[in-house]
Amino acid sequence: MTDPRPFPSAPELEDRPEIASEFDELEVDVPRVGIVMGSKSDMPAMEPAGRELDERGIRKETRVMSAHRDPDIVAEYARNARMRGLQAIIAGAGLAAALPGVVAAHTDLPVIGVPLVTATSVGGGLDALLAIAQMPPGVPVACVGVNAARNAAVLAARIIGA
Question: Which of 62, 91, 122, 144 has its CA 20 to 30 A from that of 110?
Answer without folding.
Answer: 122
